[in-house]
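TICKET: design request
STATUS: open
ATTACHED STRUCTURE:
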């Protein structure tokens, strides 16, 4: 699988001051697969997603997406840091959906979706608009194109955020607790969108506490604790027959 991994994380270390938050993380996600990352608060899940996106500079280790190193390039066996511009270019191919939607409040839903394709990918306005309308239909919000984010429910805003990430045609979509900020009755509509993306073969890494969703949608479940991957495997293995005491202890609290 490593040869064809869409996302390949190797030996990643990251400290904040004296706190080592990632202590040698390896993670491979095959093209078209869904990886669900579980773990207690503070275990380094968000830092890992941010490291994959190179929003955090790595202390050690590498991340590549579709064979291209993010943050580094290799030359003669050595690693050199990419220039900020190059990191930004690479990052446009990685979609990121946060807990808190982060839509541009002063732009309409449609403008939220067209802004980056025009400015970062150089798409024409007409092309970006056509793609945006298709994506809004895909997340069930075709009728909201002209609305401002504040007029939408949290679930609708998160679906717009997912459509906005897709507008950049990412190679992989990263989700950091996409339903944690939602009222319980709105969680389902967002998970349904992610489920549809999985069925369409979108490569995704999803940090979530929704165990039922993990069981149903994940190809691989990764359990992190203390900045390392403690255990990973198919959902039936990790969720129903965890090998490590730390995994068992965590699952007994969230299930
Ligand atoms: P999780 O998402 O699993 O809850 P995080 O990756 O957010 O965990 O955080 C892991 C640890 O790193 C926590 O102890 C957190 O306080 C710390 N941390 C995260 N980001 C920073 C930062 N920018 N500066 C200092 N400490 C941070
Ligand atoms: Mg987090």
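STATUS: resolved
RESOLUTION: sequence designed for all positions
ATTACHED SEQUENCE:
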């Amino acid at each position: 699988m490593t040869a064809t991994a869409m996302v390949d994380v190797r030996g990643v270390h990251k400290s904040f001051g004296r706190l080592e938050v990632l202590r040698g993380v390896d993670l491979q996600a095959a093209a078209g697969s869904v990886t669900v990352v579980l773990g207690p608060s503070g275990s380094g899940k968000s830092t890992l997603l941010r490291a994959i996106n190179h929003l955090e500079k790595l202390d050690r280790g590498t991340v590549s997406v579709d064979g291209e190193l993010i943050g580094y390039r290799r030359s003669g066996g050595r690693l050199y840091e990419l220039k900020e511009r190059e990191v930004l270019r690479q990052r446009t191919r990685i979609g990121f959906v946060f807990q808190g939607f982060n839509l541009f409040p002063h732009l309409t839903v449609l403008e939220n979706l067209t802004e980056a394709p025009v400015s970062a990918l150089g798409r024409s306005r007409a092309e970006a608009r056509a793609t945006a309308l298709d994506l809004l239909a895909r997340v069930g919000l075709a009728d909201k194109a002209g609305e401002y984010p504040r007029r939408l429910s949290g679930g609708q805003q998160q679906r717009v955020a997912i459509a906005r990430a897709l507008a950049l045609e990412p190679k992989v979509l990263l989700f950091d607790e996409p339903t944690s900020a939602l009222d319980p009755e709105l969680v389902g509509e967002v998970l349904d969108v992610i489920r549809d993306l999985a069925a369409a073969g979108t490569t995704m890494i999803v940090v979530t506490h929704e165990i039922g969703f993990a069981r149903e949608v994940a190809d691989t479940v990764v359990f992190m604790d203390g900045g390392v991957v403690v255990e990973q495997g198919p959902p039936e293995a990790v969720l129903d027959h965890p090998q490590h005491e730390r995994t068992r202890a965590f699952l007994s609290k969230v299930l």
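CLOSING REMARK: The longest strand covers residues 5-16. Residues 16, 19, 21, 39, 41-47 surround adenosine-5'-diphosphate (ligand 1) (CB under 6 Å).
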